[in-house]
Specification:
The complex is a heterotetramer, with two copies of chain A (about 160 residues) and two copies of chain B (about 150 residues). Chain A is about 25% helix and about 30% strand. Chain A has about 160 residues and is of the alpha+beta class. In chain A, a hairpin with a 2-residue loop joins strand 6 and strand 7. Helices cover about 40% and strands about 20% of the residues of chain B. With about 150 residues, chain B is α+β, with helices and mostly antiparallel strands. Chain B is built from four helices and six strands. The mean pLDDT of chain B is about 90. Classes of the chains: A alpha+beta (about 160), B alpha+beta (about 150). Chains in contact: A-B, A-C, B-C, B-D, C-D. Chains A and B meet through strand 3, helix 1, strand 8, helix 3 and helix 4 of A and helix 1, helix 2, strand 3, strand 4 and strand 5 of B. Bound molecules: adenosine-5'-triphosphate (2 copies) and magnesium ion (2 copies). One adenosine-5'-triphosphate sits at the interface of chains D and B.
Chain lengths: ~160, ~150, ~150, ~160
């Protein structure tokens, strides 16, 4: 299984519809400071069900919706879709392509979709149970985690170990 | 739950021995649970000795040695329940040129079974990628993605 | 003590306006003390807006924008009571090539009155130095310093 | 005023006597991971009177003494000297060159010297009063401070501001 496509609209600095085809192996994302690289990482965490605003670097969840720029007004909703190519049948569904979508409106309404059918967050979490995916720790590794992992505070460390058990 | 945790812990420990010497090309590393404590509550101690150095506290490792040790440990955890994809956001920033090369080599080995998305500023890390995307803000405050040709 | 703190705070604020736009070549930054609190206890709020971006919380800045903002603030504090020397240990790691150049240019301006010792892995930052030392461990576990010729 | 020479012996990974001439302007220190660059920064913090082991990345102060390597035994003491060229008369002494030395023995004994005369730590701190030197925050800037300074925790931030007042 691998991620085959990411579609972002209205999420953080992505004001226009952006489609990113993905392939197995190594994909590198580069660009100047502040251009939106980590926002892509946040979009993937978010569509997989991330609920903690601290992991998305925001105060409240609505802050992930495009907030406007010099020449554009702010948008009313954000939508991210992630296509998983289920070639090894890891996900317990009969499709080979599974599209997960998450939407959030400014009024706080949110929706999750699985292959264009509205589902609950619980259905998405059940889908990923025991596959190592999901918004939890070890599928996204950033520099700040290096200090947490090696720091004297064992709580952070245990969390990662328990995730894997 | 206790047996499950202990089994996973032993697997992570085995993996950590291997991944640490893959990244450091030598040296040794280990994990241990605090004595006389219930495994579900015990602290997890990390021991890491880069090649050629003496035993020392984790605190005394340098910035780059710590980053490489943490990456090796995260991979050791990951190998117990491999996720189909893994995202690395500028973890190569503290590494010197020699460690960047080692990091890329090990990454390419793991990439046979796992999809990696690597955010980086380092030109050597970019070279090991099969696909390269550039993110720009031609229009101020609005991100766009362009596909970059590696050559 | 209260008057002294407020005087220093106002000076730092003025400096921060200046150092922030030096580093970012534009944008604006400010400091403020929490309302209705005793200045000696009040929280210090930081506001930073890189050029072209809208108002946003400090949290939403990117890794590189945060590093550059912190460096600008540390210089603003430093200018109130300049120390004869300043040591920078790999503060340039999160910066992209364009920001490294800006960082080096500003550093060279300050270097007329202050001595800088800069630890770095970045080749562009090294180029702005007058003296370059390399640290090696030819003998395992033992550090030696050699003078490096810049050319 | 500027630092004109640093001499290190037995401090962390510097098992042999090391002399580093310094000049005004920008001096850059480079080298592979773990070779001893930040140990040089620690040596300067230490000789200026640093008492906090957390700032020196050790458990106890004796850990700064060379601990041995594959081919060398551990040493019994560490000594660092820093020469300040007092050309602007910033330091309240009549010499143009001021040499500060700090020594620590494995048994815990420590000594401070000013131009080869034994003094107390208090004398060194008095010397630096109001010059912006000394082991405190803003003459050494490292990447970890970036998070502290911009983090939500205002205590760390106030400390830096109060230092400057
Ligand atoms: N809701 C939002 N609306 C508009 N722009 C946003 C929003 N949230 C964040 N941003 C913008 O995204 C930028 C940060 O992007 P990001 O953190 O992805 O940068 P980056 O490419 O990772 O940079 P670095 O190399 O410095 O880490 C911020 O400058 C901010 O202006
Ligand atoms: N008391 C000691 N005796 C011997 N060696 C020591 C002692 N304390 C620390 N070291 C060694 O110093 C090394 C760390 O050096 P340092 O932190 O200066 O590296 P660095 O050059 O800053 O590397 P990086 O580029 O990764 O930040 C450790 O690997 C450790 O083995
Ligand atoms: Mg980033
Ligand atoms: Mg270092």
């Amino acid at each position: 299984m691998y991620l085959s496509k990411l579609e972002i609209f209205g999420f953080k600095s992505f004001a226009t519809k952006t489609v990113v085809p993905l392939r197995p192996g190594i994909t590198s994302i580069v660009g100047p400071n502040g251009c939106g690289k980590t926002n892509i990482v946040d979009a993937i965490r978010w569509v997989l069900g991330e609920q903690r605003t601290s992991m998305l670097r925001t105060e409240k969840m609505q802050d992930i919706i495009f907030n406007g720029s010099k020449n554009r007004k702010r948008l009313n909703y954000a939508e991210v879709s992630l296509t998983l190519h289920n070639n090894k049948g890891i996900l317990p569904v009969e499709y080979t392509d599974v599209v997960i979508t998450r939407r959030l409106y400014r009024d706080g309404d949110s929706e999750y979709l699985l292959n264009k059918n509205v589902v609950r967050l619980k259905d998405i979490n059940d889908l990923f149970m025991d596959t190592g995916m999901g918004p939890d720790a070890y599928s996204v590794i950033e520099l700040k985690m290096v200090d947490d992992l090696l720091s004297e505070d064992p709580v952070e460390r245990r969390k990662l170990f328990e995730e894997a058990a | 739950a206790r047996i499950q945790f202990l089994e996973a812990f032993e697997k992570i420990r085995d993996n950590f021995h291997r991944t640490f010497s893959m990244y450091f090309e030598g040296g040794e590393a280990d994990l241990s649970l605090q004595e006389n404590e219930d495994p579900l509550e015990a602290k997890i101690e990390i021991y890491a000795r880069p090649p050629g150095k003496r035993n020392q506290a984790l605190k005394q490792l340098s910035g780059g040695e710590k980053a490489l040790t943490a990456i090796a440990l995260l991979f050791a955890i990951y190998l117990v329940k491999p996720s189909p994809f893994c995202i690395l956001d500028e973890v190569d920033a503290p590494l010197d040129d020699a460690n960047i090369k080692r990091f890329s080599t090990v990454l390419s080995k793991f990439a046979e079974d796992t999809q990696f998305i690597v955010v980086t500023h380092n030109k050597d890390t970019m070279k090991s990628a099969g696909t390269l995307y550039g993110v720009t803000m031609e229009e101020v405050g609005v991100s766009k993605i362009v596909s970059v040709n590696l050559n």
